[in-house]
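Continuing from the previous page of notes. For each protein in this section, the sequence appears first, followed by its C-alpha cells. Read the first protein now.
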Amino acid sequence: MAAARMIFWGAFWAFLLDQASKYLVIHWMGLSRRLSIDVLPPLLNFRYGENTGINFGLFGDGADSARWILIGLSLAICLALVLWVGRGHDKGGLMQVSAGLVIGGALGNVADRLLYGYVLDFLNMSCCGLNNPYVFNLADVFIFAGAAGLILFEGRIKKPA
C-alpha cells in the first residue's frame, strides 16, 4: 500500500503542476493570443506550441487516429509502470516517486489530447548562441526526470542475503 501511495502522490503533483502551469501561461497570461513572451531571453522564453505528435513533433501528422493511439499508448505505459513498480516490494521510494512523475506527466499530456486534440507546449530554452526551435511543457520535464530516476534508482535497494 505504501508503494501505491508514493506513486499516487508523485503522479498527482506532477499532473497538477503541469496543468496549472499550462493554464497560467497559455490562458491567464494569454500566450495563446500573443504566441511569444520573453521571460529571461535567451535562456527562458514562452512560445506557444500545439504538438499533435510525440517529442519534437514526431508522428505529428494531425490524424485523429494518431491522437487516440498516443492516448492509448500513454495509458498502457502508465498501467505497466504501476504494475512494475507498485508490485515490487524491493523497489525503493525514489523508484516509486520516479514512476509517479512519469505517470503524472503522461496523464497531463493525455488530458491535453482529450481537451484540445493536441498537447500544449510553451517552454523554450536556448543558450550560448544555439537557438533551440523546440517547445515543451512541464509534463515533458516530469516524464524525462521520472524516466531518469527509474534508470538511476533501479537496483539501488540491496536484497538481503
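Done with the first. The second protein uses the same format. Note its length before scrolling.
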Amino acid sequence: MENGLNLHQRVALIAGPMTTTVSSIVLNLTRMGADCVILDPDKTVASPFINQINDAREISDKYGRAMAIQTELKTAEQIKDAVGKAAQTFGGLDIFIDANMAQKPTPIRMDGNIDSVDELLDRHLKLPLMLTQGVIGYLKSRKKGRIIFLMNESPVAKIKEDVMAQAARTGLIQFASALAKQTAEFNVTVNTLTVALTEEYILAHDPESKSIKEAMEKMKSVDPSLKITEADKISQTVAFLVSPMGATMNGQKFALS
C-alpha cells in the first residue's frame, strides 16, 4: 500500500443510505486501512456488507473495520447522539462524507405542488449542515480532517425533475467553500464532488425497466448527453481526496462525468 493512500488509524463517518456508491466508498476506504461508520436508517441492509468487511479484517489487519448505526437523523438530538456514538466506536473521527444525494426523482415540480419543499430542504441542506456541525469539533481537535459533500447532476433541463432538489443540495457548494477557509488552519479540507447519474437514480426514475441499460436508453432518448458515473470511479476519487495526497485540495468543486 502506497504511503500517500494509507488511511491506517483514520476513522471515516459516512452519512447516507447503503447504495452501491456508499458500499464502494466503504470498501475502498477500509482496504486503505480506515475504519468506517455508516449512518443509515435501515441497519439491516448494511449488516451483511458490514460482516463481509469485518471478515476481511480477520484475514489481514491492514484492512479497516466497519459498522453501521441505525438512526433517523431527523432531530438535533438524534444527530448529536449518532455522531457521538460514531466517534466513540473507533476512538474519534477524521473524515466526514455526506452521501445523502437524491437517489430517486422527487415529486416536486416547478409547475406543480411544492408542499413537500420543507422535507426536501431538511434532507438535502439542513441535515448535512447539522451533521457537519456535529463532526467539525472532532476534526479540529485532531488538527486534521476531510469533509466531502457528494452532489447530484440530475437531468433537470430536459425532463423537469429535481429542480428543487438541485437548489437545496447545491447550496452546499458555497457552504463548503466558506467553511474551507475557516478550517484551513486546522488542516481540515472541505470539498464537493458532483457525479452524474447513479445506478439507483436511473432505476428509480424508470422502475418498469428490466435493466439499467434499458432505463438509461429511455432517458437518453430525452437527453442524449446524459451519463452514468460508476460507483468505483466515485469511490476512487473520494479515496484520493481523503488521503494525505489530497491535503492541498481545499474549498474546491470537483465533478465526475
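What the second structure shows: The chain has ten helices and seven strands. Strands lie at 11-15, 35-40, 66-70, 95-98, 145-152, 188-195, 253-255. We return to this in next week's lecture.
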